Amino acid sequence: MCGVAACSPMGPNDELLQSLRAAVGPSHVLTDADVRASYETDWTRRWRGEAVAVVRPASTDEVIAVILACAAAGAAIIPQGGNTGLVGGSVPREVAAGPQVVLSTLRLRDLEPVDVLAGEVTVGSGVTLAALQAHAASSGFAFGVDLGARDSATVGGMIATNAGGIHVLRHGLMRAQLRLSVAVLALTTVGLTALPVVLTLVPATRELSVLGIRFPWLVLGVAVYPSAWFLARWYTRQAERLEQDFTEVVESP
Ligand SMILES: Cc1cc2nc3c(=O)[nH]c(=O)nc-3n(C[C@H](O)[C@H](O)[C@H](O)COP(=O)(O)OP(=O)(O)OC[C@H]3O[C@@H](n4cnc5c(N)ncnc54)[C@H](O)[C@@H]3O)c2cc1C
Question: Taking the model in full, what pTM does it have?
Answer without folding.
Answer: 0.78
